[in-house]
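Notebook B, p. 112. Complex prediction, attempt 2.
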Amino acid sequence: MTQEYMKEMKPAYTMITIMEEAERCLLCHDAPCSQSCPAGTDPARFIRSVRFRNFKGAAETIRMNNAMGSVCARVCPTERYCEYGCSRTGIDKPIDIGGIQRFVTDFEERIGMVILEKGPAKGKKIAIIGSGPAGLQAAATLLTKGYDVDIYEKNDKAGGFLRTGIPEYRMPNHIVDVEVKRIEDLGAKIILGKEIGKDLSMDQLKKDYDAVLVAVGVGKPNILDMFNGNEYAVPAVTFLAEAKAKEGKVDLPDNALVIGGGDSAMDAATTLKVLGVQNVTCVTRKELVDFRASKEELETARAAGVTIVDGYAPSAVDGKVVTFKHRKLNSELKIEADLIVLAVGQSSEAGGLGLTMNKNEVGFEGYHAGDNVFAAGDITLGDKTVVYAVRKGKEAAEAIDEYLGGK
Amino acid sequence: MVRKDLSVDFLGVHFENPFCLSSSPVGNCYDMCAKCYDEGWGGIVFKTIGPADFLIDEVSPRFDALQKEGTPFVGFKNMEQIAEHSLEENLSDLRRLKKDYPNKVLIASIMGPTEKDWEELARLVTEAGADMIEMNLSCPQMTSHAMGSDVGTNPELCKAYCQAVKRGTDLPVLAKMTPNITDMVPVAKACLEGGADGISAINTIKSICNVDLNRKIGLPIINGKSSISGYSGKAVKPVALRFIQQLRTGIPGVPISGIGGIETWEDAAEFILLGSTTLQITTSVMQYGYRIIDDLKSGLEYYMEEQGVDSLEELVGVANENLIPAEDLDRDYKVFPHIDQDKCIGCGRCYISCYDGAHQAIVWDEEERKPSCDEDKCVGCHLCVLVCPVGAISKGKVVMKPGREGSPEEKAI
Ligand SMILES: Cc1cc2nc3c(=O)[nH]c(=O)nc-3n(C[C@H](O)[C@H](O)[C@H](O)COP(=O)(O)OP(=O)(O)OC[C@H]3O[C@@H](n4cnc5c(N)ncnc54)[C@H](O)[C@@H]3O)c2cc1C
Ligand SMILES: Cc1cc2nc3c(=O)[nH]c(=O)nc-3n(C[C@H](O)[C@H](O)[C@H](O)COP(=O)(O)O)c2cc1C
Ligand code: SF4
Ligand code: SF4
Ligand code: SF4
């Protein structure tokens, strides 16, 4: 079933159907959608361009505002952002803004449009640690301002969780390749397989560069103590990274248990199901009403056939048998599985790079960490989504530009 | 990112881009025009100004629109006459606009019932600072038959009025044509002889958009009655393009300001390719606002880049020579449709249209729900291409008709 895993789940628009969707847009005055895009991608503006058949102009609006436009088109929880306030909801349902954005960015890729241009050289060098969406967006913004940018990435491929976390059927790796290549073509040098703090010291970077941006994300998987050393247990992000790197060709159990209720839990459960695992049960502590995963992820998991049990927390484990207790009721549950996927969050290692951390977040407002060091992405305050990483990447780049006197 | 110079020179006046509001309520007062200039339009043809003693008294409501399926503004009908503001207000707006926007083009549209009025209006708007004058010889719903499209079908009268205007001004003059005529060329020629420097085309087409079926009255209803009046918007584009082509063949090289149904940059490019140097727009601005200028400009810039041109003037009229009389077209071959079975979703629309509206050449496989083409019956009309909802049918094999000379490979299909 790797074929299903490797194919984008949501079908793309055609030249005819995109006009039908664009025509549904009311072309609002002071459009609510544009006010609620965290990255300022200005959906009302690019939908209007589509409506008036200016597809290149639409691509320009997206790309100028969002260097991760093709990614956001696919993974943004639009129901929480741009589509949340969409006026069309007053008639039937919101405009499929993500779908329109995907059509436009696919068009941009198909015709090989080059939109972002490097600014006149400033003769200043910035180091970025981490090639996730925050690091990539910051690189794009800095390059258009004329800075030289080196990106250090500990993995052997760039992209952060876009590459290793979000499953192929939602976030194809070839799209990540295209987005990364665009930023390389703009002038970024990406140094792969170099972990800062291990292969190269933070102090060295601070000396060698005019500014350093830490965008290392929150990527170290958490383990519940009771699963320490359990041979059946694997963290969700580890499983997802392996499935993605091997294009779905991983060893599969007959039955799988996923513990957790966020996006990673849904992604891991759906991936298992899509790959052909017979029984996938997902058990979450939270009750469905205050579920963390996006509605779309939850629906996708259910449609794929995942059994979701809510309100139960693990209380004991014996090999492959996990016992759960309901948080409120006097009720117990025992599940035996050949694979236990732990989707219980990740933690940050940014503390090791000298940043003041408060759990997984930096201990300061804004982006300036002191000296010539800045931070962006999931480690900074605010939502932990790709589009927020983009916004923070842009804002951190602005902060660096201001710190360096804009010259 | 692409940035191209969209500027054009037209009748000696420099436009930063060819896009102008056409004379109508979209450019009716200082505040509207200022907003329009601020949003990036190249020029404005101000709402038609009449003589001080001609009182305008409008009906309410005054518009109607033709709808087709889900599209609400296929065409638009209006019953407006000319500017409702007083002559003095209009002139003072023109003065202020020219003072505040010296680099934007301001065109005054005028109309009068007598030669004396035309000459006087021309003098007044020239003094007010207009860069150009447009003579409205074409409004189809005037309450006076000494003005409007009744005048615009009479070459002698048009010529005399052009001469009168030229006595009152030394500005370049455009004569705005009515499409409510079989052949526009004699009128346009008369205007040029009378001193006009270029032609604007088209004004609105006489129409009845809809009839209220219960009350048995055309729309809009004004105290139980309605009138024939001007039709505009996307639906009139084909008619406008046809007149512009005929002007360019009848009067080679005539400078044209193209009008009628422009909504997208693609529409604009079509008007340019058929011979328009500047473009004027009303209905799509009434529907969507001045902001449509963003995509008109950006789309046209990208088109210039695709075409490898640095000046729009290189594109003006280049399609004129590719429109030839029907009797001169090559009738020796036909092009069969090619059906892409992977794209086909099996709706059967091509089968129905070919059977009921063409030549019964689509064979329908009822089991598989798939169409195929019977080449013995197919005449190559391509009705099927136009009805397919997924674009599964395209131009396929080219064949010579029996007994004709030539080879299919040579045909530019
Ligand atoms: C399974 C999963 C599904 C998700 N689904 C969605 C979704 O649908 N929509 C959405 O908006 N968000 C989603 N997210 C969240 C989203 O992926 C993150 O918010 C986003 O990737 C954060 O970007 P970032 O740039 O801060 O960090 P990351 O993407 O985590 O990138 C950080 C990069 O830094 C590198 N790095 C770390 N330390 C070092 C070091 N010392 N030296 C060099 N390199 C280092 C890492 O290898 C990594 O490549 C999902 C996350 C997961 C895990
Ligand atoms: C409401 C309305 C009022 C108009 N008033 C005038 C006018 O005063 N003078 C004039 O020359 N044309 C007038 N026109 C015609 C337009 O300028 C234009 O020639 C015509 O509408 C076709 O262009 P369009 O399809 O872009 O609207 C008017 C059109 C409309 C819709
Ligand atoms: S809010 Fe919805 S309807 Fe309004 S402009 Fe945005 S997408 Fe269109
Ligand atoms: S559009 Fe404006 S002026 Fe016209 S009826 Fe509506 S509110 Fe009145
Ligand atoms: S109209 Fe198009 S989609 Fe429908 S049957 Fe014919 S070829 Fe197929």
